[in-house]
Amino acid sequence: MTTTTPLAPKPGQLPGGRRRFTAARPAAGFAAAALVLFAVAPLALSDFRLGLLAKYLCTAMVAVGICLAWGRGGLLTLGQGVFFGLGGYAMAMHLKIADAGPGNLPDFMQLYGTATELPWWWRPFANPVFAIAATFLLPMAVAAILGSFVFRRRVKGAYFAILSQALAAAFAIWLVGQQATTGGTNGLTDIQGFFGYDLNDPVNQRMVYFVIAAALLLLIALARQLMHSRYGELLVAVRDSEERVRFLGYDPANVKLVAYVAAAGMAGLAGALFVPAVGIISPALVGIVPSIELVIGAAVGGRASLTGAVLGAIGVAWARTALSEEFPAAWTYFQGLLFIVALAFLPGGLASLAATAKRRRANRGLAGGTS
């Protein structure tokens, strides 16, 4: 009887073929991203282009939450514009109060309204701590209420997507109808300061960009931790076989609710940082069309991949800015076609191209070996 000695792992490998450097890849990716965002981009881009990049990074922050909820949990969230808007309006309300000064009303209230003092629901936003907390806690609270109602009644699939889209439409219509307190169609505009810093100063605009870039990396780290944790595995199990998870003793409603609430908080934070970057928040940025645009970016890049979703969101946002200037009437149709093509022919997005090509090469190799 002969015995075989197990092959020793090659240098740089662990038993089972796993490489020692696998655990270091995320850290290297974060280091590369930080280098690009904090060093390369500020040096290579003008102040105007850097401001545009800051806006694109805000959409990427929403895409991180979409990747968690949709890519990992199967929740097609077509209403992220609601949570983006809640965070944006919470921040803008505080900044408008600060711009007006103590005892004064924001400029649009003096123009459109008849009130002599701030509405009662505006007053808490004069406190900067309350306003900052509200930018992500308020969207999370709304998502928790809505999610509890929806998931416990086992609403899912297309019905959930339509319901979330209807919520976005209702929110935009409500904002338009409250002109005296929300600015109506125009929204909250002409925001001049950001916690004591003048936003007309390019130096302060760069500071806002760095804050947004840091927030994006923080959200990516948080989402990655959730996706690779035990909870992330449970979320995938709920997506693939909800009834089996329920049979094992877990409540799928609670599992999906956590992902939905986390995605809402990320969208709210993105909306809050969008306000100082752009200087405006309006119903046009929170309705059905913006919500779909946010999902398109994640779908094109790869909704199951954090890197793909982030780069896809940035790429689609950039293309929208660049191409809409040349084709203002046709860009919306192109965007819809892009979404349909991505879902129909490349469900995994651009991030899946490498894996698809590798799988096809492997299949060809197996076919060649058996012939």
Rg is 23 Å
Distance between the termini: 34 Å
What kind of sheet is the major sheet? 2 strands, antiparallel
Q: Classify the helix fraction into a percent range.
A: 55-70%
Poorly predicted ranges (pLDDT <50, ≥5 residues)?
1-19
Q: How many E-type strands?
A: 2
Describe what this molecule looks like in 3D.
- With 371 residues, the chain is mainly α.
- It is 70% helix and 1% strand.
- The protein is built from 15 helices and two strands.
- Helix 3 packs across helix 11 (252-278).
- The two termini are 34 Å apart.
Main attributes?
1% strand, 371 residues, 2 strands, mainly alpha, disordered N terminus
What is the gist of this entry?
The chain contains 15 helices and 2 strands.
SSE layout and pairings?
Layout: H1 25-44, H2 47-72, H3 80-100, H4 107-112, H5 128-151, H6 158-177, H7 179-182, E1 193-194, E2 197-198, H8 202-227, H9 230-240, H10 242-247, H11 252-278, H12 288-301, H13 306-326, H14 331-345, H15 353-370
Antiparallel strand pairs: 1-2
Helix pairs in contact: 1-8, 2-8, 2-11, 2-12, 2-13, 3-5, 3-11, 5-11, 8-11, 9-11, 12-13, 12-14
